[in-house]
Amino acid sequence: MNTFMRKSVLGIAGLAFAGGLAAGPLHATTAPTAGSSAAPTVVAVQADKPGVDEGKLIPHGVRGEQSRIALGDEQTANVKAIVAATKKAGMGERAAVISVGTSLQESKLENLGHLGDRNDHDSRGLFQQRPSSGWGTVEQITDPEYSTLAFLKGLKQVDGWQDMPLTEAAQTVQVSAYPDAYAQWEQQAADLVAEHWNS
């Protein structure tokens, strides 16, 4: 093979490899079957911004099938508010992932008011917190910064939250009727934190 041809072949191979990297990580997840002791799938997280430690976003990999929704402007603003409040609380990227994932499950990152007959008691806001349970007034818990700081205050009281899967940490704070539902949002939450942590 002459030198020109070898350089061409190597150049094409290099472009194919670089193209694969630019396309981002593969999001392969496996849901454990009933009775299996399958370990959670470890998924790479793409973090384009400098300073985001990928290992802190999803330290134990995701568990089960992952869900993903497209975000509108209001939802993106709420992600940024959650990230800013997490920094204000002096907590790191993992706390932001848990917070964003919890809000994805509770409200799809929408700052919900009263939902009428569909309302779960008096739940409101990004985290569906309840004034009657001591989370704050309606005005407070529908303020993204306040509600995030209230959630993080609860998270800080959970021993070992840093080493828990998202669903366990979130459930310990939220006490949901669907304790495993938070797990499906871990990958999108990590991707959003990676995108907005340094923006």
Structural class determined from secondary elements = mainly alpha
Q: Roughly what fraction of the amino acids lie in strands?
A: under 5%
Count of individual beta strands: 0
Largest sheet descriptor: none
Order of helices and strands: HHHHHHHH
How far from one another are the termini?
48 Å
The geometry reads as globular
Count of alpha and pi helical runs: 8
The overall average pLDDT, rounded, is 78
Helix content: 40-55%
What do you see in this structure?
Helices cover 46% and strands 0% of the residues. It contains eight helices and no strands. The longest helix is centred in the N-terminal third of the chain and has 20 residues, at 3-22. Mean pLDDT is 78; it is low at 1-49.
Which features does this protein show?
mainly alpha; globular; disordered N terminus; single chain; 8 helices; about 200 residues
What's this entry about, in short?
The chain has about 200 residues and is mainly α. Helices cover about 45% and strands about 0% of the residues.
Reconstruct the topology from this structure:
Blueprint: H1 3-22, H2 54-57, H3 73-88, H4 93-107, H5 138-141, H6 144-156, H7 166-174, H8 186-196
